[in-house]
Amino acid sequence: MKLLAIETATEACSASLLIDGAIVNRYEVAPRRHTQLILPMCEALIAEAGIVLSQLDAVAFGCGPGSFTGVRIAAGVVQGIAFAWDLPVLPVSTLAALAQEIIEVEKKPKVLAAIDARMNEVYWGYYCRDSQGLASLDGAEGVGKPAELPLRSGSWFGVGSGWQAYSEVFGQKFGKALVGNDETLLPKARFVISLASAMYERGEATTAERALPVYLRDDIVRKPSSS
Prior knowledge:
The structure is a single chain. The protein has 2 domains: 2-93 and 187-210, Nucleotidyltransferase, domain 5, CATH 3.30.420.40; 94-182, Nucleotidyltransferase, domain 5 (2-Layer Sandwich), CATH 3.30.420.40. 32% of the residues lie in helices and 28% in strands. It has 6 helices and 11 strands. The strands form 2 sheets. Strands 6, 7, 8, 9, 10 and 11 form a 6-stranded mixed beta sheet that branches. It has a 5-stranded mixed beta sheet with strand order 3-2-1-4-5, with helices on both faces.
């Protein structure tokens, strides 16, 4: 399998390439520079692998939720590649990618991923490790105030910028049900790859025109007019 993945939904910008089981990565924390970085990252990975884009089996991206601009960048880049080379697309939740790193690397079975959504809210999703070691969504993803998140039974590990922004609220809400957290971890294309490759094998790829961003929130924050 040859699969290219990108993730730009937060301050981190990353690209990963899977070729027959081997994965190579590019990753940089660079707010507001994603448009300058992501295409060169992809081009470098493809060149180093000695292949061309037409040889890919599919392209994947972190489809959100996250920064409105960042999510749109990822969707636009992947759609452009997919349209140009007639490739299928694998949209992967940014929250799921966060949870996958904790499940895959830290071996935690239950993860609550939360990304700061501004406006005193977080994007959130509960994930459990399935039989293949992949992040499986428990319920549905949502957006809302940290104190109003629904509770799930069991012990959970928290991950994402939401835990940094609202650590006190989360601590009070979850108490002993919280077994730890990593508030500094940002999503990576490397873990989009883990989930996307399984999706591809299950036949869950979609077309370029259906590869859309996931915002969860309908209202976009706009600066007030100066007039």
